[in-house]
Amino acid sequence: MHRSVLAAAPLLVLGTIAVSSLHAAENTSALDRTFTPTFSLKHQRADAPPVDVPIPKITGEVYELRDQVDLMARAVAGQAQLAATGIDGRWSVAMCLAAQRSVDTRAEVRF
What is the mean pLDDT of residues 34-63? Predict the structure, then answer.
């Protein structure tokens, strides 16, 4: 599978959104469920050529799940704290639901 994403990074200035830079990401793994993912990330400012952004750690669903299980095991053993609380999770779900309502209604949604 080959996926590419191109996103404009917004710059918020007194309620006005202007594009200040572009980001391009590429991932060529089978739904990220592989121990050998390939990926890249580039950053480009309006007045400069694209620049590779170093990614110091291998990422992908397999690695992220392994990190989450490891963190949970260490937290249960009292050796680490969880990265997020249940309150953080509730807020994240509320934000995603509000975003979907905004898409569905094509209107601003506050939460």
Answer: 81
